[in-house]
Amino acid sequence: xxxxxxxxxxxxxFFQQLLYAVSHAYYTCTINKNKDWGDE
Length: 40
What we know:
Elements lengths: L1 H38 L1
């Protein structure tokens, strides 16, 4: 039971980190695209 709880918490934290990394990368990509669009 305790092991299951720890695994659940760990996977939740891992998913949060993954989601943050993806959203951060997408945000950075969008900003760079807008910058290029403005320079043109």
